[in-house]
C-alpha cells in the first residue's frame, strides 16, 4: 500500500466538507449547493492567524483574460438561455418551460433552446417564471428522453410518445441517490443479489427491452439506495444492449455494490480492500477501488493505475479527498480524459491547504479585494465547469508575504457562499453573481454570532446591548431608519463582542423599531437578551473550558503514570525489592516509590477523565442552550 513520501507525494488538500456534494453530477449537468439563508448563517469563522484580506485585490492590475468571454445571447424563444443545463436545479429566479399536458415536469432554458425549440413543437410548450425557492430540476437530459424519444419525435413530427413518457416520469418520486429510503418500490433482478434501482433512474436510463425484462418492480420495506446513482453501474447499464452482455453486467454490478463507498474526506484502514496507485509519469496519487471503478475502468486510463496491497494503517483517497471529484465527474460525461489529468497535475503539485498558500492566483476582472482562487482550485473546479473565462491571472504571490486562504477552501469563512455564487455564474454564464458578492463581502469578516471571542478587534455598529457586526450591517442594517441613532459607528472592539443582529427574531424586532421609532423598547429587549446570554451561553463556555482542561489534565497524568511505571519496573528488574510501599489512595503492594507514584497518577488520570466525560456537563449545556434559543 502506498504511503506518504515527501519526495514524490504531497499532502492532500483539505477538500470540501464531508456532506457537501460537488457541483458537477454524474450526468451532464451542474447541480447547485444550497445557499445559506443569510450571508453569515452557519459559516465557519475565519482563521485568526490568516491574513483576512489577501493581496489578490491589491497591488498590480490583473492581466487580461486569454480569451474573450461572450455572454449568452437572447434566443427567439423569448429568454436568454442558461449557459449549462440545470439538471441539478438552480437557486435563482429564472424562466423554465413545460408542456400544459405535464405541468409538473420542467425543461431548462438551455435544453429548450438547444434541443426542444422546433418550428413544429415550440408553440406546444409554455414559458414559466419560477422563483429560486421553487426551482425544479431539468428533466430533459435523461437518456430515454434526450437520446431516444426526442430524435424520433423530431423525425416523425409526433409528440405523443414524448408526452406519454413525461406523464409517467412526472408521477415517479425523485432518486434518493445514496440516501437510504424505506418502503418504496425498486427495480431488482434475481441475478444480482442486493442491487436496487429507483424507478426514476431506471426509466431515465433508456434500457434495452431485452435487458429490461431481467428486472421486476418490488416494494421493499427495508431501507435501500439507488445503485444507478453510481457512475460505474450507470455507465455499465448504458453499454449493456444485448442478452450476451448480461453476464458481464451482473458480474460488474455485483462487484461494485460489494465495495464500500469512497471515504471522501475521511480515512479508512488500508487492509482488506484493493487500492490503486498511478504509474510513473502521471501525478502521484492513490485512489480507492470505488473511484477506480467509477472513473477509470473501461477507459484507456485504467492502464495508468496498478493495484497495491494494504496494511494495518489509515489511508485516504486522493479523489474523494479533494475537488478532483469534480474533474473526474466532468471527465466522464464530457468524455475528455485530459480534464482530469490536467487538474490532477496541479492539485497534486500545489494543493490548496487550510494554512493558505503562496503561489499562482486568479481573480475577477474587477479585482475585488479579499478575493482569490488558487491554482489548484482553478484547475479542479473552475476549468472543468467551463468558467475560466470569468477570471484573470493575478500571477504569483510573493513568497515573503503571509500565506493567504483560497475562497474555495472549505475552511474559508465564506466558502459556502462563494461556491454557491460561482455555480450560479457557471450555470447562467454571467460572472456578476460571483463578482457582486466578492465586491461586497470580500473584505468583510463573517458574523461572530453569539461567540464574543470571535468579535475581538472587529468593527461594530448599533448600541452596546444591540451590537451589529460588519456583515450584518452591510447585509441588513445599512440605510435603515435607526442608523442615524447608532451609538457605535464602525468602532473596533479590542475586547471582543457578540453580534445581536444575526437572528431572525432580533431582525424582526429591529425592523419594528425602525417603523415605530421606539428605540428604548428595542434596547430594553436587547439588554434582557444579554442577561439571558450571560446566564446560559457564558456558562456553557465555562463548562466546555473546564471539560477541556480536565481532558488535558487526564492525558498529562496518564503520560506521567506510564513514565513512572516504566522507571519503577526498570529499577525493580535491576535491583529488586525487599519491601513494598503504598497508601490508602493508590493501594498497597507496590515494589518501589516510582511504581507508587505511577499508580497515584493513573488514578488521578482516571478521575480527571471521568470529570471530562461526565454526562452532567453536556446535559446542563443542552438545557442552557434551549433557554438561550427562546430569546436568541
Automatic annotation (TrEMBL):
Biased segments, Polar residues type: 38-48
Composition skew (Pro residues), residue ranges: 11-21
Highest taxon listed in the record's lineage: Eukaryota
Biased composition (Acidic residues): 1-10
Region (Disordered): 1-73
Name of the protein in its database record: Integral membrane protein
Amino acid at each position: 500500500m502506498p504511503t506518504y513520501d515527501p519526495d514524490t507525494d504531497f499532502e492532500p488538500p483539505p477538500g470540501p466538507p464531508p456532506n457537501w456534494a460537488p457541483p458537477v453530477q454524474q450526468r451532464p449537468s451542474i447541480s447547485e449547493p444550497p445557499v445559506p439563508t443569510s450571508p453569515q448563517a452557519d459559516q465557519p469563522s475565519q482563521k485568526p492567524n490568516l491574513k483576512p484580506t489577501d493581496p489578490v485585490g491589491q497591488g498590480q492590475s490583473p492581466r487580461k483574460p486569454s480569451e474573450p468571454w461572450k455572454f449568452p445571447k437572447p434566443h427567439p424563444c423569448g429568454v436568454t438561455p442558461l449557459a449549462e443545463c440545470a439538471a441539478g436545479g438552480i437557486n435563482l429566479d429564472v424562466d423554465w418551460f413545460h408542456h400544459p399536458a405535464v405541468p409538473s415536469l420542467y425543461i431548462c432554458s438551455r435544453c429548450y433552446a438547444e434541443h426542444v425549440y422546433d418550428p413544429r413543437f415550440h408553440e406546444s410548450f409554455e414559458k414559466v417564471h419560477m422563483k429560486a425557492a421553487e426551482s425544479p430540476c431539468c428533466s430533459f437530459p435523461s437518456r430515454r428522453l434526450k437520446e431516444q424519444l426526442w430524435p424520433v419525435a423530431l423525425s416523425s413530427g409526433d409528440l405523443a410518445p414524448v408526452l406519454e413518457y413525461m406523464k409517467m416520469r412526472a408521477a415517479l418520486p425523485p432518486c434518493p441517490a445514496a440516501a437510504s429510503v424505506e418502503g418504496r418500490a425498486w427495480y431488482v433482478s434475481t441475478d444480482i443479489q442486493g442491487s436496487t434501482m429507483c424507478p426514476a433512474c431506471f426509466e431515465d436510463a433508456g434500457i434495452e427491452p431485452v435487458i429490461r425484462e431481467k428486472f421486476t418492480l418490488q416494494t421493499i420495506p427495508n431501507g435501500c439506495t439507488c445503485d444507478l446513482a453510481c457512475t460505474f453501474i450507470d455507465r455499465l447499464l448504458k453499454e449493456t444492449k444485448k442478452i450476451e452482455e448480461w453476464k458481464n453486467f451482473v458480474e460488474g454490478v455485483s462487484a461494485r455494490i460489494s465495495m464500500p463507498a469512497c471515504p471522501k474526506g475521511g480515512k479508512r484502514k488500508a487492509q482488506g480492500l484493493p487500492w490503486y496507485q498511478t504509474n510513473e509519469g502521471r501525478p502521484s496519487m492513490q485512489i480507492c477501488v470505488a473511484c477506480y471503478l467509477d472513473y477509470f475502468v473501461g477507459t484507456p486510463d485504467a492502464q495508468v493505475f496498478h493495484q497495491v496491497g494494504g496494511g494495518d494503517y489509515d489511508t485516504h483517497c486522493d479523489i474523494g479527498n479533494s475537488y478532483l471529484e469534480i474533474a473526474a465527474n466532468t471527465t466522464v460525461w464530457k468524455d475528455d480524459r485530459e480534464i482530469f489529468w490536467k487538474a490532477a497535475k496541479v492539485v497534486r503539485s500545489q494543493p490548496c491547504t487550510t494554512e493558505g498558500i503562496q503561489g499562482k492566483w486568479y481573480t475577477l476582472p474587477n479585482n475585488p479585494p479579499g478575493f482569490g482562487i488558487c491554482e489548484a482550485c482553478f484547475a479542479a473546479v473552475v476549468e472543468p465547469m467551463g468558467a475560466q473565462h470569468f477570471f484573470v491571472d493575478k500571477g504569483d504571490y510573493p513568497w515573503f508575504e503571509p500565506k493567504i486562504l483560497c475562497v474555495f477552501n472549505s475552511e474559508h469563512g465564506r466558502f459556502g457562499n462563494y461556491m454557491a455564487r460561482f455555480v450560479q455564474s457557471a450555470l447562467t454564464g454571467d460572472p456578476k453573481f460571483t463578482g457582486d458578492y466578492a465586491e461586497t463581502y470580500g473584505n468583510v469578516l463573517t458574523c461572530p454570532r453569539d461567540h464574543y471571542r470571535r468579535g475581538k478587534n472587529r468593527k461594530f455598529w448599533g448600541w452596546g446591548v444591540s451590537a451589529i457586526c460588519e456583515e450584518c450591517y452591510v447585509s441588513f442594517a445599512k440605510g435603515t431608519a435607526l442608523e442615524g441613532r447608532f451609538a457605535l459607528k464602525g468602532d473596533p472592539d479590542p475586547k471582543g463582542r457578540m453580534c445581536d443582529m444575526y437572528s431572525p427574531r432580533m431582525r424582526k424586532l429591529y425592523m419594528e423599531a425602525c417603523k415605530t421609532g421606539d428605540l428604548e423598547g428595542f434596547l430594553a429587549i436587547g439588554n434582557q437578551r444579554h442577561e439571558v446570554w450571560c446566564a446560559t451561553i457564558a456558562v456553557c463556555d465555562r463548562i466546555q473550558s473546564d471539560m477541556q482542561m480536565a481532558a488535558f489534565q487526564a492525558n498529562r497524568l496518564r503520560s506521567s503514570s506510564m513514565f513512572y511505571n516504566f522507571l519503577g519496573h526498570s529499577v525493580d528488574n535491576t535491583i529488586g525489592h525487599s519491601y513494598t510501599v503504598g497508601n490508602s489512595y493508590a493501594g498497597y503492594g507496590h515494589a518501589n516509590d516510582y511504581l507508587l507514584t505511577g499508580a497515584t497518577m493513573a488514578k488521578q488520570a482516571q478521575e480527571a477523565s471521568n470529570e471530562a466525560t461526565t454526562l452532567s456537563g453536556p446535559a446542563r449545556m443542552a438545557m442552557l442552550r434551549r433557554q438561550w434559543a427562546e430569546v436568541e
